[in-house]
Write a structure and sequence with these properties.
About 30% of the residues lie in helices and about 25% in strands. It is built from 11 helices and 19 strands. The radius of gyration is 21 Å and the shape is globular. The protein binds flavin-adenine dinucleotide (FAD).
């Protein structure tokens, strides 16, 4: 008898989990999603930044394990390891110093850059009097998250995984030695996306039976886990991105840059992409771009940072969801109170760079009973009951 595993959600995490489960020998894996194109998924709407810099060691380990793999397939996934520069003001310098010391203790190639050293490497950063210092990681960079998702999906398919479109999971229940999923089938992609905008209207009548299930539905995971009477501890919050043209400035050689203001930016298909985490954003499934996002939040700090960014032309933009856990770290492990249900979600702004590491942890837990690196068991939901939180404060 085959052990039948369902992965709920085909974003970068669900796809990576299918990739790792089949790589580790799982014999039957179905990935279920109402919209395999993933138009509203965070995987389609992120900035593609990849770094090793973290406060908490489990997050550093998730990045290390993922990036080690990204380096092996760099061409296919568009991984450009051309650096990550984080600028700190006097006010935020304590966090920067802490992150730098931790990174260096972990043996990672990070260095502090000050004043002229910043401008020597990034000549367009010519207005930096208010910058205390920068932290630079030369093995970090950006990648194409859609190409990475497809890489995982193709690898999983070659080893027998099936990806089922137009399948929305509304609820989940354990019954004896099996798990039952209550599903519905939105008739079109548009209907699927409408459902994803209003989870409170989800309905489902068909039952699918599996031996084990992994919930990887990103910001929608709590909606599915409600059926197991689990409190919704994670929150969906919109984050926006704008793209723009900067005449006479080519950011292609520079990787990701995070300004003291919190604006992050990098080259994007011949233009530039930028985003910022706005603190007053309400919770909810919201995906639009505010009309004034670029003019109010992106352009002014860039104007103040570089004479090459005084004249910018806004192009387009979008909103996508961060899924916030209470300690800003992913939730990864067995679902308490069940024997056959697992979860991997709530990676806020880190799911791309953590995808392979997270998938390895959950696959090892399902197939071998525990993660190979025992510390990674701390990522399970139990931590919110025990109070042993994995607080992460970098770029939340
Ligand atoms: C603006 C922005 C910038 C970001 N920048 C970065 C960055 O630079 N670096 C980085 O590492 N991360 C970044 N992130 C975070 C990253 O995009 C996410 O952490 C990651 O994509 C989460 O992947 P996921 O597979 O968990 O969720 P998703 O990609 O959202 O996928 C979830 C999937 O589940 C499906 N689903 C939903 N409900 C159901 C259901 N009921 N039944 C079945 N399937 C369902 C959805 O259709 C979707 O395909 C950013 C995110 C945003 C929004």
């Amino acid at each position: 008898m085959k052990n039948r595993i369902a992965v709920v959600g085909a974003g970068i995490i669900g796809s990576a989990v299918a990739f790792e489960l089949t790589r580790c020998g799982a014999d039957s894996v179905d990935v279920l999603d109402p919209d395999l194109e993933g138009e509203l998924s965070s995987t389609e709407r992120n900035a593609g930044g990849v770094r090793h810099l973290w406060i908490h060691p489990v997050n550093a380990e998730l990045s290390r394990r993922s990036i080690e793999y990204f380096e092996k397939v760099r061409e296919e996934i568009g991984f450009h390891q051309n650096g990550y520069l984080w600028l700190y003001s006097q006010q935020s310098s304590a966090l920067g110093e802490k992150a730098l010391v931790l990174a260096q203790k972990r043996g990672l190639p990070y260095e502090a850059l000050e004043g002229k050293a910043i401008t020597a490497r990034y000549p367009f950063l010519d207005k930096i009097d208010d910058v205390a210092f920068g932290v630079h990681g030369r093995k970090d960079g950006i990648l194409n998250s859609n190409a990475l998702k497809l890489h995982y999906q193709n690898g999983a398919k070659k080893r027998g995984a099936r990806f089922q479109d137009r399948t929305l999971v509304k609820g989940i229940a354990e019954s004896g030695a099996t798990v039952q999923l209550m599903v519905s089938h939105p008739p079109t992609g548009e209907a699927a996306r409408e459902s994803l905008k209003s989870p409170s209207h989800w309905a489902g009548s068909e039952l699918l039976t599996y031996d084990q299930v992994v919930i990887c539905a990103g910001a929608w995971s709590s909606e599915i886990l409600k059926s197991l009477s689990l409190a919704g501890i994670t929150k969906p919050v919109r984050r926006q991105i704008a793209t723009f043209q900067a005449e006479n400035l080519d950011l292609t050689p520079y990787g990701m840059i995070v300004d003291t203001s919190g604006v992050y930016f990098h080259a994007e298909g011949g233009n530039c992409l930028a985003g910022i985490v706005l603190k007053n954003e309400p919770e909810g499934y919201r995906f639009h771009l505010d009309n004034d996002f670029f003019e109010t939040h992106i352009w002014p700090p860039l104007f103040e940072r570089s004479s090459k960014m005084e004249r910018l032309r806004p192009l387009t933009g979008w909103g996508g969801l961060y899924s916030y856990s209470p300690d800003i770290t992913g939730i990864l492990g067995p679902v308490p109170g069940t024997k056959r249900v697992y979860e991997a979600h709530s990676f806020t702004g880190h799911g791309v760079m953590h995808s392979l590491g997270a998938a390895a942890v959950i696959s090892e837990t399902i197939l071998f009973g525990a993660p190979k690196t025992p510390e990674m068991a701390q990522l399970s939901r139990d931590r919110f009951v025990s109070g042993r939180l994995l607080d992460e404060r970098l770029h939340i």
